[in-house]
């Protein structure tokens, strides 16, 4: 099968968040299975050019229709860790992708609407006719609209589109004037509620809603989050359109890169181990204590690794820290604030607890330390208010670090409670709580630490069961291939 991914990110060359990891991980798994995969990206000036091999111009003068005229683009080609990637570089006074950052500009919608048009124009002029075009998030949600409204009439009518929504909170809501720039025009037509008209602002169009209507199939990043998006406020206003399109909407859990996250061969941890030698994990626990100057007191280590964002349940992370210290446990945090005030708050907390031998807060991100924390901690806490998929719990399981999570989104699809899950005991891998309050997380913490202290052999069994879970890209890739086959034969 021939698949073209059109996205705003792809690890490690252009990465801001989990979207980049998904694009790279899925593409690599599809490629390993023998499928032909290409990725189309903007050519940002701030990309990791050291991660591209053989970068060269592949198409010199791509003239992209835009705003009543045309903008000339150069298309580059290179390999990103064996993955074929095309990079579109527009030459215009707007400097769409020459700004020293990937996101954060007032004309964000214009930048990525242009990229969507340019990606399709490149495919059309070069005769690329993939079986499936896979687009991601609001940045490329206009691709299926442009494909079926413009390029299908130019000979691309057989292409099928799968669109993945990674984050419902960003939908690409903008004024209807942008439609003229893209070449679609007719704002009264596309701005209708049954087309691209935003559900909450009658004077705006919504890129993501356009993808819901025009794409042949739409996915989000876990089955439980797909349910949440349809039936709760997690759909951020798109619940009704999702209900209308439910026959072509579903959730597929993300995977993690098992080559990068592998405790048997991880060069960033001192003691390798696997599910059969999980007791050797203790060597990494000792190394973690030495690095962070924690006292060697035979206490369980609870950890948080990730962004410090309101979504992550900051009040519960903070509560867990002090609860751990009050209950003969140790706490480690590695993360940076999504807002300046959050960062400042946790830096103040770090100073307040600086001399505590059972606690260490590292504000920022350190890849090496992240690996050591996953390998050395006993538990990872994820008390998220919402979590479309979540990667930290899957990485933790890979390293025998037991997740303590709130039952939402992808956390509910990947972590199964040791005491209360309906699954067989041999398939349980963590501790789960329902309510985002102190009582809820304390109930899980008490059960988790009780098992660690009172039944160490059972705790080792729980760790090993988590390590035997398969959250690689193997199963998600097959699910996407099933979607691709489904839409190709509709």
What can you see in these coordinates?
37% of the residues lie in helices and 20% in strands. With 490 residues, the protein is of the alpha/beta class. The protein has two domains: 269 residues, Glycogen Phosphorylase B (Rossmann fold), CATH 3.40.50.2000; 194 residues, 3-Layer(aba) Sandwich (Rossmann fold), CATH 3.40.50. The strands form three sheets. A nine-stranded mixed beta sheet has the order 3-4-5-2-1-6-7-10-11, with helices on both faces. Strands 14-13-12-15-16-17 form a six-stranded parallel beta sheet, with helices on both faces. A two-stranded antiparallel sheet has the order 8-9. Helix 3 crosses helix 6 and helix 10 crosses helix 15. The longest helix is centred in the N-terminal third of the chain and has 18 residues. The chain is elongated, with a radius of gyration of 24 Å. The mean pLDDT is 96.
